[in-house]
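Next up, sample data.

:::
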Amino acid sequence: MPQIVSLSDRAIVKHVDFLKECGFSSKQVKKMVVGCPQLLALNTDIIKLSYDYFKTTMGRPLDDLIMFPAFFTYGLESTIKPRHKMVAKKGVKCSLAWLLNCSDEKFEERTNYDSMDMEEMEMESSFDFNTLMEPRNDESSNYEDDSDDEYL
């Protein structure tokens, strides 16, 4: 993500501090940023909402976010909540990558009891940057406002 070099120190520190407040160590934050550099450019209010949902409703360990930091790049209302509700309703335990790193059509296939492949659920953990290029239904942007007004 070449745009990362244009981020201000203040913006980067703000994101890193938030992640540390969530309980991540500096080493874990580093691993997350290397795995998903977009994390430093996302809107922190959106990150907070997604993190709160992750901890309170999903009740998953922080290690899941370390393994799949791209979680924060997905729309909370359009993708995370509906998919989490679906797997929770069916009692399916899966990785965040299995849950999120696919198109809506692929997710439908995955959660169809007739074709649910538990081996695929375990194996598929790598992040696919192509999923970030798919259109989102969220009305708000997940990225920080690049306006210089706050720096004046």
Q: What stands out?
A: The longest helix spans residues 44-58. The helical segments are 9-21, 26-35, 44-58, 62-67, 76-90, 96-100, 104-111, 118-123.
